[in-house]
Amino acid sequence: MPSVTERIQNFNSNRIPVYTALKYQAMARDPFYFFRGTAHLFYEDLANANTLPTLPLTWVCGDLHLENFGSYKGDNRLVYFDLNDFDESSLAPATWELTRMVTSIFVALHSMEVAPAEAKNMALLFLKSYSTVLSKGRSRYIEPQTAKGLVRSFLLKVGERKQKDLVKERTIRKNGDIGLLVDRKRLFSIDDPSLTTKLSEFVNTWMVNVHHHRFQVIDAGFRIAGTGSLGVKRYLFLLERLQEERKYLLLDMKQAQPSSLQMHLSNQQPAWLSEAQRVVTVQEYMQNISPALLRPVLFNNESYVIKEMQPTDDKINFSTLQNRFNDMEAVLQNMAMLTASAQLRSSGRQGSANADELIAFGRDGAWIQPIITYAGEYANQVKADYDKYLAAFTSGYFDTH
After folding, report:
1. Are residues 115 and 188 in the same domain?
2. In a domain, 317, yes or no
3. 290 within some domain
4. Does residue 56 have a cis peptide bond before it, meaning omega lies within 30 degrees of 0?
């Protein structure tokens, strides 16, 4: 079998080298960042281990971890806290999604120097809270009016952010004109002027034909965000309203790649028209309300997901909760409730288990200890793999120039 470093390099070989280098740099920060960037390793190893139940099948976001829950404004303009990354989404065993999440708890809390016994208690809390919600068979959601504690204060804070402030933060004015701020951290210039023109014309046409919005693109750049998806094509557009009071809009357009789970799944997947259709459809299945302007598109025969970039997009930085165990528990209970609710909400859709099957799974609970055992052991493997990766990265093995 290829080494860990070879597996990582092979998986990322089809990405844009200069931006993939940023992914490798992010993965070198600590084991949790490494874990976030290597879902392909996790699922390959999990499939080979073959130690967990493969039923029930549910819709999964595919990369469930502590940093993949966050806030956003739905198309009803209300702010929600929910699962928010569906790049790896698939029809898969519920146990796979849960095991990735629990492994992330072990890895993250180890990086925060939380004692192993306390980390195990937090992992058990997540699984038991998930099991309780699932067994009741009723999906729930979190908005400022229903949130409590830390999540409530978090949502109230992000809800105060204004679009004009986001635009101001992401743009620069020069000689009376406005354009995107190219800081070479969050945004890079697009080197090919003809590509910029084609992208702008595509988005302008899409806005008119699909949404009838009287906006036009006035600038575009290459966006840097996340960890696992760094290196895929991702663009940010600044649009200006053509009529009425001057207003600006930011759009994110991200290339959709095949899910790293699917090659390891034996169950049949729907015949999607594109990878972007998969991402958007599963997101709409699992979330209570989806973000504004969320659509799959094809550009230059490549599949992309378009959505509005919002000032309310944010996540709870779990590392700030170090030694705040009551807050940790409350956030994990919320995350468990959202995970169970997303699976209930999407139950019975295109091959997923129905609500009765999920309720029975929640009441059974025999799967909890095997997940704890595997996730705890795999967290140790993540640390060992990270050490090998860091040594290779430091030696220049992953240089992309």
Report:
1. no
2. no
3. yes
4. yes
Closest CA to 351 of 398, 281, 287: 281
Which CA distances in Å does 359 have to 52, 167, 365?
19, 45, 11
Do residues 9 and 152 both lie within one domain?
A: yes
User: For 217, phi and psi rounded to 5 degrees?
Assistant: -70, 130
DSSP E strand boundaries for 61-214? 69-73, 79-83, 90-93, 171-174, 177-180, 187-188
For the record, the structure tokens of 29 come out as: 């920060």
pLDDT classification of 77: cutoffs 50, 70, 90? confident
The 10 Å CB-count burial string (b at 16+, else e) for 308-345 is bbbbbbbbbebeebeeeeebbbbbbbbbbbbbbbbbbb
Domain of 145, in residue numbers: 4-160+322-394
Is the entire prediction scored with pTM above 0.70?
yes
Per-residue pLDDT of 242-286, as tens digits, reads 877 788 999 999 999 999 999 999 999 999 999 999 999 999 999
Cα(286)–Cα(99) distance, rounded to whole angstroms?
18
Domain count, the chain: 2
> Where residue 192 falls among pLDDT bands split at 50, 70, 90?
very high
Q: Residue 26 belongs to what H/E stretch?
A: helix 17-27
